Structure formats: structure tokens, C-alpha cells
Amino acid sequence: MIVAATAAALSGCTPSGPEYVAVCADTHTHTRTIDRDCRQNGSGSFQWYYLNADRNNAPRVGSRVTGGSFATPKAKPGGPAPTISRGGSVAPNGKVTRGGFGSSSSGKTSGS
Residues near 2 by Cβ (< 8 Å), separated by ≥ 6? Predict the structure, then answer.
């Protein structure tokens, strides 16, 4: 654990992952849909729904989304932009997954 924390500190990364995860949801029914709906139709009734990443679970596809917002999170005054992981950030079983050392929200490792 100390080695991982030291490596993260030296690389400038934090092991905590993104501040927010985004799942695709229908704006009319507030029901989670597959991420492809937001990638292909990123407007209209399908939008990204932002959840605080410190949650342990996110709604499954077909479940109602609650506890978040359709509004894109903004930076705090004078602070950096919040980190957001869109699409593929939540496993089908509803568990919030976090990238390991050297990974990004795209699922690719750094340097690839």
C-alpha cells in the first residue's frame, strides 16, 4: 500500500479516480440506458447523468437514476475542472469501477 501511494504521489496521479461518473439516462423517464444512446444521440431525450464517484453503486440499465444531475459538474471558483469518467465507468452489475495506476477513463493505459 505504501508503495502504491508513493508511486501515485511521484507520478502526480491520485489513486482515488474521477470525482464524477456519468451514466446515460432518458431525461423524460429518468431511467438509465446504455451508454451508446448518449454517444450517438448526445442530445434530446438521452443525456449524461452525473453521479458523485464516491458512491459504491450506480443504477443498473433500466433502473431509475437518482442522487445526481443532468447538469455537467462545474469547477469550484479558482479550482481545476472536475474529473469525469463517461461511459464504461460503471459495470453492468451496478458497481462503480475505478481505473488502476496508469489507466484513464477511456480504459486505455497511459503510453498506449
Answer: none
